Amino acid sequence: MSQDLYRCTANDLATRSIASQSSDTLVTETVDWLEANGFDVAPVLDGDDTVLGYVTLGQLQDVAPDAQIGEYTEPITIEEIISSDAAFDEILPALYDSPFYFLGGQNRLTGILTRADLNTSPAMIHLFDRITLLEERFRDLIRTTAPDWRDRVSLRPGIVEGIEDRHAEAQRSNIGLDEIHYAQFSTLVVIISSIEDCWQACGFENEKRASSQLDDVRDLRNSVAHSQLIVQHTGEGLGNGRTIGHVEQTYTALTNCLDALSSN
Question: CA-CA distance, 69 to 54, in Å (whole number)?
Fold first, then answer.
């Protein structure tokens, strides 16, 4: 990808105002506090505000409610720390492995990164930038590789009529471009997935894989475009929606496709 794009790091995503608990706080009070604030994890401090470690909501729900949380505090190790400069493609697999990370060090924390932070503006902007570029590359690919796409791909009449209407309106306003510019992203996905020269240029092994992965990109694009949740489900227990694993796979497909098109 040679084009400059918005770069999103762990520092951009992390929650910076860190809410903590004192080590002598009762378990029941901390559980109520975590649930009331929608937190899954919190640092634990001693009387001098030194970081002792952390507790998680899941951990505290299985212990004596009248105990002090200091008894159940886990030390913060290198495994729970992520670099503030970690890039988006590093953050996704990290959050797949663990639901949270701390920024900073064992004794001084500057932020907490969780899966919920993937639903914030920096992540949205990062994804929007790349999906918009992919859409532009798709149009260029179709225009140069498959200019006869209308004859080669079976599209519903309503879709074709919509393209024709938008194209005609642009021409009447003297701002008309090639007709493919008036196809929606979902239609571009169908065209790319249906024409071998196109899906090969995007780096896919076969039509089925192209269709499946680009459908996921389309769904992610719709969520980003409408400011909906990127991560929709934790992947634990019952529930429907996009998990962190799905986001990671879709982002990989997106970036691999962009890289393939950039090298052509």
Answer: 9
Q: Which residues contact 232 (CB under 8 A, 6 or more apart)?
A: 223, 240, 241, 242, 243
pLDDT at 105: 67
- The two tokens of residue 215 are 């459908």
What's the whole-model pTM score? 0.89
Residue-wise pLDDT tens digits, 149-186: 999 999 998 999 999 999 999 999 999 999 999 999 99
Instruction: Indicate the burial class of 107 (C-beta count within 10 angstroms; 0-12, 13-18, 19 or more).
Output: exposed
